[in-house]
Amino acid sequence: MKEIAALRQGRMATPDDAIAALKDGNARFFSGQATRPEAGANQRRAQIMGQTPFAAVLACSDSRVPVEIVFDQGLGDLFVTRVAGNVAGDSELGSLEYALRHLDVRLIVVMGHEGCGAVAAALLPEADLAQEPEHLRRLIARIQPSVWDLPPIRDKKARMREAVLNNVRHQVAALREQAVIREAEASGQVRVIGAFYEIGSGAVDFLTEEEDLRV
After folding, report:
1. Predicted confidence band at 9 (pLDDT cuts at 50, 70, 90)?
2. CB–CB of 147/123 below 8 Å?
3. Angstrom distance (rounded) from CA 132 to CA 215
4. Which of 22, 37, 53, 180 can bridge 74 by disulfide, Cβ–Cβ 3.0-4.6 Å?
5. Are 167 and 112 within 8 A, CB to CB?
6. Which residue blocks in the chain are alpha helix, DSSP H?
7. What pLDDT band is residue 44 in, cutting at 50, 70 and 90?
8. Which residues neighbour 56 within 8 Å (Cβ) at sequence distance 6 or greater?
9. Is a pLDDT exceeding 70 seen at residue 6?
10. What is the rounded distance in angstroms from the CA atom of residue 69 to the CA atom of residue 64?
11. Per-residue pLDDT for 1 more than 60?
């Protein structure tokens, strides 16, 4: 079992390798060529020895966004933290710090998606939000700053996409403010990027350039 587990170590040498693996996996998924990686009994048992994911993904809890399926990855490939609106709260930050310090991931992805209900809620009038439960209001409050200064976009679908992308950018910026993540990115161990998943097409748009991520 140790030998099988060891084979998985270090299979992504750089953050760019990790990005390429996610892009290739998503291309297989949205084109209908997904391999649906399934581990055999020995591989599953080997995972007891430890996990070796190559990327961490902060994604939305939305049931239409199954991260491993979207990227056509198998057991142990991705360290996924899911919360409505893919917001970077204390629990999420702690999970990502764990992935960096103890699992040696090469990439952190903040992934929003088409038609995100949490982001849509952040666009509602305060009077409407006042009717929601306390903890949901607190979660939405983490998203609101990212949608306060949206440009005037008449097309509702385009406006919603821009709101989701803005939230992704703000959450990436929040991650980069944390010392552990900032130091890991500065050293070249990891890259922090954004992504947008289109539910209708199955395609993921990657935000990898600094201009794409600028708040």
Report:
1. very low
2. yes
3. 28
4. 37
5. yes
6. 2-8, 15-30, 41-46, 67-70, 90-103, 117-122, 126-129, 134-143, 156-176, 179-186, 210-213
7. confident
8. 78, 79, 80, 81, 95, 96, 99, 100, 103, 105, 107, 108, 109
9. no
10. 10
11. no
